[in-house]
């Protein structure tokens, strides 16, 4: 998006783009989607934000729904299971790569290292609730934030003045006067509440407020509000609840979903739609399995992505102001540091499911271990694009499965 929107098309200047990205990182949910919504909003108001956001996620929603159906129907077939073996091994390499890359950026101070380690221990050993870990990390960052120097404040003031002078050339939707396109923050919040409540009421009155579909909708709404750090961070939290507490799906199915989500366009948090889909498939109730799964998957997707639109339309007018607050920046830095530890818990989960499927007391799956190691090498040491790495990993898994 930066290459196309800032460098190529020159729709947005560098500073507004960076401020928007920093703001999106403060929000729960997929920051890539939120940034797309913001860019559309800045250019063409609410309509532009809707078009940009829907264009960003709809292809992934449709494609993953098809893949989920094929997985549910044919996941046990040797060809499908072989492909998934390779993809899941590659996902481990991707998660390790994410830990390293985020760690290099986030662990800049001793307190950040402490927060990362504390987040890992809290989730993996002490089983502290995920939202509480995020809250405490943000609070620690807020308290320990470094004050801005006078030179930094002066630099920010010059940047703000330059931004104000450049607004004359921006579309009306991007200026202060036209930003909300006559929709007040209150109206945006009310409309968002209505759009959330309509599916909840429709499902509740037709299938029951205590039905699996109502519970799916409420659970993924809760998950959407604590998805700081992206899909890798939230997946461990969602899996622990769906698998260990609620028993709606298996750990194997959740890892398979992450592998399939890696092959689709759009935000990786789309994996939550797959998990909702499989929940409906596993517990169809009075409906057929495909219909139950389709409904649960759509409810999970709606609950996951709707908040991003609401957050951006509410907060977009205040992005520049928030991006200059040291306390907010400190909280964001602390949360990002904690995310390193959170993603490490996901790596442990993946290792248990993919590399040691029979338990740590047994030998690892050497084929999966080899595919994961080669995938890591290709990602770190070569310039091979990610889609090709996934294709090679899937092919290796298929070949090994057929030979075996």
* Rg, alpha carbons: 22 Å
User: Could you give a short account of the major beta sheet?
Assistant: none
Helix and strand sequence: HHHHHHHHHHHHHHHHH
> Helix/strand-derived class?
mainly alpha
Number of helices: 17
Principal-axes shape call = globular
How do the helices and strands line up, and which of them pair or pack?
Layout: H1 2-8, H2 14-26, H3 31-74, H4 78-106, H5 110-124, H6 130-144, H7 150-166, H8 185-207, H9 212-224, H10 230-245, H11 251-262, H12 271-282, H13 289-315, H14 319-323, H15 326-355, H16 366-381, H17 386-403
Helix pairs in contact: 2-3, 3-12, 3-13, 4-11, 4-15, 4-16, 4-17, 5-6, 5-15, 6-15, 8-9, 8-13, 9-12, 9-13, 10-15, 11-12, 12-13, 16-17
Would you kindly provide a written description of the structure presented here, covering whatever features stand out?
The chain has helices spanning 2-8, 14-26, 31-74, 78-106, 110-124, 130-144, 150-166, 185-207, 212-224, 230-245, 251-262, 271-282, 289-315, 319-323, 326-355, 366-381, 386-403. The protein is globular and about 60 Å long. It has one domain (2-170, 186-403). The protein has 404 residues and is mainly alpha-helical. The chain is built from 17 helices and no strands.
What would a concise description of this structure say?
With 404 residues, this protein is mainly α. Helices cover 77% and strands 0% of the residues. The chain is built from 17 helices and no strands.
Properties at a glance:
404 residues; mainly alpha; 17 helices; 77% helix
